[in-house]
Amino acid sequence: MSERVAFLGLGVMGSAMAGHLAAAGHQVTVFNRTASVAEKWLAANRGSRAATPADAAAGARFVFACVGNDDDVREIAVGEVGAIPAMAPGAVFVDHTTASARLARELAADAAARDISFLDAPVSGGQAGAENGALTVMVGGDEDAFQKALPLIDCYARCVERLGPSGSGQLAKMVNQICIAGVVEGLAEGLHFARAAGLDPAAVVDVISKGAAQSWQMDNRTETMLAGVFDFGFAVDWMRKDLAIALDEARRSGARLPLAALVDQLYAEVQAMGGGRWDSSSLLARLEALKSAR
Ligand SMILES: NC(=O)c1ccc[n+]([C@@H]2O[C@H](COP(=O)([O-])OP(=O)(O)OC[C@H]3O[C@@H](n4cnc5c(N)ncnc54)[C@H](OP(=O)(O)O)[C@@H]3O)[C@@H](O)[C@H]2O)c1
């Protein structure tokens, strides 16, 4: 069934997700803060454009968002021209931004007071996952709203799971980022060590990727890391935002995250090298810079 939906935020991730909704036959109204980006999206996809989140959300049964951080979500959801006050009772807001669990609970309560459902639904799978419609989506919120939104989220996902009440999706995404942080630094150190030892790191990875050291990062990032290519992918600035959210949550729950805290500091050094927009695999660039400065 074709649904009337709004999509707020047409960045690397949002533009591809909105495109899949349009390709599946849904009536998509997009909003992007920088209007030229929405124009570009409309040149490649079927849909319409609104000047504010509120205008995009009016009359939509589902409103999707994928913006930057907590403040950005707050602005487009409940700011001066935010979507939630413009949504009809019974509508569902699906937030794909990686943000805090506290924000998800706060906005879910705001939305519930207007008889609107709010799902926190951060994603994993990167730009390629969004473009190929193969994202993993971790959802928190009400089961009924989840069941309503599921057929739409399926347009760009290969795995969609509800993990519990509001905030659970964001908490699961924190687990995802905590796991990734240690793995990327481990891979960077392995490649760096192989090179320093005089081995061919690509040949070594060919072998060890068949064994217990294998990982998504090893399969998808080794080649670009060894080529020193980092101007793509998941930005270091975003990774630091995500680790800050996880470390803040851990301070509250009492969980210990020594490795995530360390890797966060290593990413701060990559930022100081000018690598804020580099892919998070650029931890290798930091190691190589330190070695050549020795
Ligand atoms: N890229 C990845 O591989 C990846 C993977 C998983 C999760 N994520 C998460 O997904 C979210 C989006 O990532 P992305 O890579 O798509 O980011 P991006 O390319 O930088 O796009 C961000 C989008 O948010 C909009 N935006 C930011 N602040 C806003 C505000 N205050 N009001 C209105 N619009 C605002 C931007 O609008 P403008 O065009 O006007 O700047 C842009 O459309 C982030 O939370 C990120 O952590 C990203």
CATH superfamily heading of the largest domain: NAD(P)-binding Rossmann-like Domain
Bound molecules: NADP nicotinamide-adenine-dinucleotide phosphate
CATH topology of the largest domain: Rossmann fold
Largest sheet: 6 strands, parallel
Spatial gap, N to C terminus: 63 Å
Mean pLDDT: 97
| pLDDT < 50 runs, ≥5 residues | none
Number of domains: 2
Description:
The protein is of the alpha/beta class. It folds into two domains: 4-165, NAD(P)-binding Rossmann-like Domain (Rossmann fold); 171-292, N-(1-d-carboxylethyl)-l-norvaline Dehydrogenase, domain 2. 53% of the residues lie in helices and 14% in strands. It is built from 13 helices and nine strands. The strands form two sheets. A six-stranded parallel β-sheet has the order 3-2-1-4-5-6. The protein has a three-stranded mixed β-sheet with strand order 7-8-9. The structure holds NADP nicotinamide-adenine-dinucleotide phosphate.
In short:
With 294 residues, the chain is α/β, with parallel strands linked by helices.
List keywords for this structure.
binds NADP nicotinamide-adenine-dinucleotide phosphate; N-(1-d-carboxylethyl)-l-norvaline Dehydrogenase, domain 2; elongated; 2 domains; 13 helices; six-stranded parallel sheet; Rossmann fold
Write the layout of secondary structure elements.
Elements: E1 4-8, H1 12-23, E2 27-31, H2 35-44, E3 48-49, H3 53-57, E4 62-65, H4 70-78, E5 92-95, H5 101-112, E6 117-120, E7 123-124, H6 126-131, E8 135-140, H7 143-153, E9 157-164, H8 168-196, H9 201-208, H10 216-227, H11 236-253, H12 258-272, H13 283-292
Parallel strand pairs: 1-2, 1-4, 2-3, 4-5, 5-6, 8-9
Antiparallel strand pairs: 7-8
Helix pairs in contact: 8-9, 8-10, 8-11, 8-12, 8-13, 11-12
The protein binds NADP nicotinamide-adenine-dinucleotide phosphate.
